[in-house]
Design brief:
Radius of gyration: 21 Å
Helix content: under 10%
Number of helices: 1
Order of helices and strands: EEEEEEEEEHEEEEEEE
Largest sheet: 4 strands, antiparallel
Length: 196
C-alpha cells in the first residue's frame, strides 16, 4: 500500500493475523494443534455417483488451546472444493472431545479402524503421564465412546502407535505401543479380555 503525505511517500505492508482457530457452525472456537491422525472407511460415506458410495474419513487432533482431543468425520470427503474452510461447507461433523473437555488428553494421538469398521483411538494424558484408549463402535457416534486408562505406571505414553487384530471370535484386539520415559524403554499393551 502506497500513501502520499505531501512531499513524503511511504509504503506500508498489510499485516494479516495467522491463527489455528476454527469456528464451528455453532460458533464454538476450536483449535488445531501439533498432533493429528486420520483413518478412512471404504465406501462408508454418502452416495456420490448413482450407487457409488464415497469413503468416510475420520480425523482426531490435539486442541492445544483447550487441552483436549477432538474427533470429527466426513461422509463426503471428495466433494470438498479447494479454498473451502467453513465447517458446513466441508461436510465435517461437529468436533467432539471423546475423552472429555479440557483434561490434557490428546497428545501423540493415533486412530485406526479395524476390519469390522470399529474405531480405536489412543492418546497421551499430559496432565497425568498416562496412556488413554477409546473404543467407538459406530464412527458416526463418538459421544458413545468407551474410554479407559491403559497404563499409568510412571511417566509413559509418548510416541504412541496402535494396530488392531481380530481374534478367532472376530473380536477386536488393540495393540498399543508407546515410549515409557520413566524407565527409558518402549512398551506394548494389548487387550486380554474382549468382553470388558
Amino acid at each position: 500500500i502506497k500513501k502520499s503525505l505531501g512531499n513524503y511517500e511511504s509504503t506500508f505492508q498489510e499485516v494479516y493475523e495467522v491463527t489455528n482457530k476454527v469456528i464451528t457452525e455453532d460458533d464454538e472456537e476450536i483449535f488445531a494443534g501439533s498432533f493429528v491422525d486420520i483413518a478412512a472407511i471404504s465406501q462408508a460415506g454418502d452416495i456420490i455417483e448413482g450407487e457409488t458410495h464415497d469413503d468416510a474419513v475420520i480425523a482426531v487432533w490435539w486442541d492445544e488451546t483447550n487441552q483436549q482431543l477432538l474427533y470429527s468425520y466426513n461422509l463426503k470427503p471428495n466433494s470438498i472444493a479447494a479454498n473451502t474452510y467453513k465447517q458446513e461447507d466441508t461436510h465435517w461433523s461437529k468436533p467432539k472431545a471423546i475423552f472429555g473437555n479440557n483434561n490434557g488428553i490428546g497428545k501423540y494421538c493415533k486412530i485406526v479402524v479395524d476390519n469390522n469398521n470399529k474405531v480405536h483411538v489412543v492418546a497421551y494424558d499430559s496432565f497425568n503421564g498416562d496412556v488413554c484408549y477409546a473404543y467407538i463402535s459406530d464412527f458416526k457416534h463418538p459421544e458413545n465412546a468407551k474410554t479407559c486408562i491403559v497404563d499409568s505406571y510412571g511417566i509413559i505414553g509418548t510416541e504412541l502407535n496402535i494396530d488392531v487384530a481380530l481374534n478367532s471370535n472376530n473380536e477386536s484386539v488393540p495393540y498399543i505401543s508407546y515410549y515409557a520415559g520413566s524407565n527409558v524403554r518402549p512398551k506394548l499393551a494389548y487387550l486380554i479380555n474382549t468382553d470388558a
